[in-house]
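In response to the reviewer comment on reproducibility (Comment 2.3), we provide here a single inverse folding case reported in full, input and output, so that an independent group could reproduce the run without further information from us. The structure tokens appear first.
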């Protein structure tokens, strides 16, 4: 699902085709609820609209805030979500399906109601909730991030100071790290327990607009106005991959778990291949050559792969040295 200033679209993630295009108001945030039957969209007009995904129609409108609903995050219990707004409030909501209610009293298929609210000192820019619903973090316009325990929302919040307004952030699956992206072009990696900063990374040439952790890892994707998407190791603070392809600013991104599962299957296949004691069917059945002779490689092992990497690295270094020598002699 994607939102814009005048439309709401539902997409097929496998084919990339648009399934539904709905004329709509100014949507700022949204999420699809469990069961994939309904979606919630927070708007610039301070309301939350409940969308029936199947029919593509709005079935209910809820007055949520006194200002624009800028961020929405689901709670992993499956029956709640959190919103943040420029009216300085963080609100907690619960929802129930019609089959859980008395249908003679409630004719609506989905009922949404507020549970509690927290007043902040400034506009709420971003809300994130940890996977186990233990922590909630709120990024404010005053360049701070407040981290709360769900059971003690009003007591002893951990305060994180950023040098610029935070536009996006995410919490790792194990609750160890919080990564923030801001208008100063930096990624900042924080410890979630104490709010200590692990690293500042100058990541892009323009504002960081979106970021998200890969599930069950400390790898994180970031997207910015410089048209690039980058892939980072938040433990080693290293850039792993740069993805080019957009011709304008990248405003948002989302990650599913299928890539991770495929990677695990490939790693398992690779490890089983290394542990396989049988010789490759492509190796001729003949005596092993003498030491120093040239022949086809035998069984693939971790040692042979490491040796191959070492040879490639040595060749790269030798090529660079030859270039330097050539330039010096010229």
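Designed residues, in position order:
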């Amino acid at each position: 699902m994607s939102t814009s200033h005048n439309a709401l679209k539902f997409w097929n993630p496998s084919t990339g085709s648009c399934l539904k295009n709905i004329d709509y108001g100014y949507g700022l945030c949204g999420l699809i609820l469990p069961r994939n039957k309904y979606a919630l969209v927070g708007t610039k007009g301070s309301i939350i609209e409940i969308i029936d995904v199947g029919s593509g129609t709005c079935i209910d409108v809820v007055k949520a805030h006194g200002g624009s609903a800028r961020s929405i995050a689901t709670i992993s219990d499956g029956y709640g979500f959190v919103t943040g707004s420029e009216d300085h409030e963080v609100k907690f909501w619960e929802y129930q399906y019609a089959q859980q209610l008395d249908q003679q009293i409630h004719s609506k298929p989905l009922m949404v109601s507020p549970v509690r609210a927290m007043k902040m000192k400034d506009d709420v820019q971003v809300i994130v909730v940890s996977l186990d619903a233990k922590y909630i973090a709120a990024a404010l316009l005053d360049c701070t991030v407040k981290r709360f325990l769900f059971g003690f929302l009003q007591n002893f919040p951990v305060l994180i100071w950023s040098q610029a307004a935070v536009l996006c952030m995410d919490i790792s699956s194990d609750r160890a790290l919080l990564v923030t992206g801001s208008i100063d072009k930096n990624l900042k990696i924080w410890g979630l327990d104490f709010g200590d900063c692990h690293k500042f990374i100058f990541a892009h040439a323009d504002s960081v607009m979106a970021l998200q952790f890969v599930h069950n890892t400390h790898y994180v994707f970031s997207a910015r106005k410089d048209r690039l998407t980058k892939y980072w190791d938040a433990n080693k603070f290293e850039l792993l991959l740069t993805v080019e392809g957009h011709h304008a600013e990248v405003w948002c991104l989302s990650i599913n778990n299928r890539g991770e599962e495929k990677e695990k299957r490939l790693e398992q296949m690779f490890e089983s291949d290394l542990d396989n004691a049988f010789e490759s069917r492509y190796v001729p059945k003949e005596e092993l050559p003498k030491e120093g002779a040239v022949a086809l490689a035998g069984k693939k092992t971790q040692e042979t792969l490491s040796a191959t990497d070492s040879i490639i690295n040595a060749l790269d270094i030798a090529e660079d040295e030859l270039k330097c020598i050539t330039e010096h002699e010229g």
